[in-house]
Amino acid sequence: MRKMLILAAAMAAFSAVPTKAQVSLDMSLITCKQYMESPPERKELIGNWMRGYFSATKNLTTVDMRYVKRNNAKVLGYCKSHKNVTLFKAVEKNAR
Predict the structure, then answer these.
(1) How many domains is the chain built from?
(2) Radius of gyration of the chain (CA)
């Protein structure tokens, strides 16, 4: 009986805790159009993830901010005229 009460109390406490929906993004499927239409905070998140991902593929451990700004401008320029291309492809073609 006591175990049932403890279990019931635990379940009641757990169900009272608000939960947030988990959202995941498949970064390889995001198009330039989707990226450009994203809210600023999502753009920043996606941009940072892409920079980290491609830095890791080149085995870089430092961030040169001159290249970040230049690469962002190049990728956005490319995306404006290639809206259906994935963001991965845009970064591969334009980031150095």
Answers:
(1) 1
(2) 21
